[in-house]
């Protein structure tokens, strides 16, 4: 593996605007719901209005005879779907395993019971309203009080946490609760399914075209070449678009039955019912420390709600075993079933609610010990990953805390509640640390260096909106000197070499080795032709004496300007292009993880302002320092952290999905009633990236940064709220009612 050249880093370290930005702001980027095919029909689902029971009758004769209606899809005519076998990322994974209409049982409010297929969306919607569904109701449970019935699962254990807890010093035993949160990407989920008589093309809002293909192949019972999945642009997903949801199969069935393309766009209301959410979590934290501030034990026992028929576990304990040094630790998990659609991954699954609990507990224990919460964390910095004994590939949490404290002015903090004021406002300051795994998945890529002087790089991953198109172009530019505007990037299509999910903050780290291998192979081919072809100015010279830089082929001993544009070599060789392939391995069982503990780290410092007279709470200022390895595109990276911190403001103060106990419906199922943080809620943001490349993970040293910025924010905010008001909120979000006594 060659090292990274200086010129490569000058391209890679630059803050690039997204190369797909102009297409998006000018409306030329075609998103799934924009896809318009000849003779396209529209499907609209009929959703159950009970949360538990059975469908006893379906009256659709009136709907069927309405103008423009082509068919009513129901249990009796939808045809056969299969269950997936593997539930692995490579072979196909879903969170809701039951195919639509498989039985007549209703397990959650909004579950699909039928679908209308019509010539227009309006005709289909009108017909949906005319369908009458009879039910036999059963008792449902959507309560957020979670009591684990069976034994918890032990996730991590060392020493004897229970005994150590009882041995004096300071202790803390509190339970932290996070609510159901619903992903609200601006782009609604959608499928356009087109059965052409032999196979399918799916335009789909998916964060994983390859996984989507793998899932559909199994559930439809078709070979790979009969299922093409395309996802060119995404209006984000936050995890809700990682895995297939049943609407995709409804569109597939509708297209197969009608022989026409069918578009199905999930409504905002259905987004709260049918395409996942972050489950409610309940986390009991028991921490103890000696009077000097050294942690002596941590117990983290968490449960989350899951659907009736699927086992989603929110891995809240993911970061707990190694964030701090502690000899005695026990982390356990459990699920409690509720009549809700399946929960799924939501930005920073596990770590985000988990670090709300752990970091809140750390702040509370620091206060009991009368030790500054930053100093408390520094005192408990581990030397190795104590859960495995493995060395950290690259860990700079101490520097994150110290740098952040310095930038924030933390030394000025006076710990007494309500003791800090500015301009008549009471100030609260809080801190929270964060961590997220440095993951990489398998990937393949192809690079073509073309005789017209342009390049093309392709990979069957997709751009969720974070800047994946741009990163691929940057990688090719860095190693060839070809300008970004002469590099075409192809993503989001299963016809391309298989690529990773846009998930786990892993896409960039996954594609780096594959793209670099491909671009190097293509470059080598150009050099080989330069040495071999009669019309080349380098004919007869040794290929090893030649170099490819600044878009030119030249002698290693010469400056690039003395050489020729690479296109000239390809033209001389009568080649359309020189093509190189690359592939890289990875996954949750990455062998690298046997040798290193690979994580990103960070710290958030938060200021809130509080006006008790009018009970007005604002997050005014956040300083964040992230240790995420090398940032290949600092502009896109900053965008990720800023967006995540704003989402953290929403998590702390606004977001929660409420289920109506009467009928089990998620009732605040609109953007008017489900409050997310908006521009008006955005504090002053100061993001710093430490520059410690993690070359264990890849030669450029880049780890992922899309999710970590959300972890730890809510703990920092609730600690700041306590500092300002004296009220300790342990059940998110912080409601104004919680503070009225302050
Ligand atoms: Mo992310 S929750 O892995 O899309």
Give structural attributes.
27 strands; seven-stranded mixed beta sheet; single chain; Aldehyde Oxidoreductase, domain 4; 3 domains; binds dioxothiomolybdenum(VI) ion; 25% helix; five-stranded mixed beta sheet; 18 helices; 742 residues; alpha+beta; Aldehyde Oxidoreductase, domain 3; globular
Explain this structure.
This protein is α+β, with helices and mostly antiparallel strands and 742 residues long. It folds into three domains: 6-29 and 440-584, 2-Layer Sandwich (Aldehyde Oxidoreductase, domain 4), CATH 3.30.365; 32-140 and 188-271, Aldehyde Oxidoreductase, domain 3; 390-436 and 596-739, Aldehyde oxidase/xanthine dehydrogenase, molybdopterin binding domain (Aldehyde Oxidoreductase, domain 4). 25% of the residues lie in helices and 24% in strands. The chain is built from 18 helices and 27 strands. α1 packs antiparallel against α13 (468-480), α10 (351-369) runs parallel beside α17 (713-725) and α13 packs parallel to α14 (507-532). The radius of gyration is 27 Å and the shape is globular. The termini are far apart.
Summarize the structure.
25% of the residues lie in helices and 24% in strands. The chain is an alpha+beta fold and 742 residues long.
Bound heterogens, unique: dioxothiomolybdenum(VI) ion
Helix segment tally: 18
Domain count, please report it.
3
Class derived from helix and strand content: alpha+beta
Task: Give the tally of β-strands.
Answer: 27
What's the rounded overall pLDDT mean? Answer: 96
CATH superfamily of the largest domain: Aldehyde oxidase/xanthine dehydrogenase, a/b hammerhead
CATH class of the largest domain: Alpha Beta
Proportion of residues in β-strands: 15-25%
How would you sum up the global shape? globular
CATH A-level architecture of the largest domain: Alpha-Beta Complex
Helix content: 10-25%
What composes the largest sheet? Answer: 7 strands, mixed
**Strand order, largest beta sheet:** 3-5-1-12-9-10-11
Which stretches are low in confidence, meaning pLDDT under 50 for 5 or more residues running?
none
Span from first to last CA? 60 Å
